[in-house]
Design a protein that fits this description.
single chain, mainly alpha, 2 helices, elongated
Length: 60
Amino acid sequence: MSPQGLELMRAHANSGADEVTVLQDLIAERCCGDFVKVEEGKVRTRAMIARRSAAHGVSG
């Protein structure tokens, strides 16, 4: 295998490792955070979608 091929493989492997680290950090943060009830989460999600839709001029 060429040196460029090895470097590409290394970069790809490191990218995956970085993603795993970020996901682990996110999960750890979420485990320690405050949780909202399902209904409150739905209300917040609908509100967020409405804000973003309005910001982009989308109705509906």
